Amino acid sequence: MIEAETPILSAHGIEMWDYVVLAALESATVPSQSELATAVRRDKTRLIPILDRLEARRLLSRTPDPADRRNRVVALTDEGRAVFTACRKDIREMEAKFLSSVPSAKRRTFLEVLEHLADDAPQG
């Protein structure tokens, strides 16, 4: 699936980890960088270059946390939300085509297994 998603992400000017971060921000309340690293299961030091790239493209913003100025609050911008929404739509269309020949019950089981594997994946 990643191989099939890569051209879609590239068409929107982002990479796989960019999409993962945008997805986490789209579904979360304003997290700190540390909370975001935990949510996407990525070491903080490996997350920073991704955030730098997305912020440079104005897809997210980082501001000092009013409760603790040592932390940064990360949020999607309107442009970031638009890019994420367009990518998600295109990926879902590709997945629907990819899985169209699989019977509904088997497709559901397959997707449940993928979710389980993703939930159990080690943080990287």
TrEMBL record:
SUPFAM superfamilies per UniProt: Winged helix' DNA-binding domain
Pfam families in UniProt: MarR
Molecular-function annotations in GO: DNA binding; DNA-binding transcription factor activity
One BP term from GO: response to stress
Keywords on record: DNA-binding
Domain HTH marR-type: 1-119
Protein name (record): DNA-binding MarR family transcriptional regulator
Lineage of the organism: Bacteria, Bacillati, Actinomycetota, Actinomycetes, Pseudonocardiales
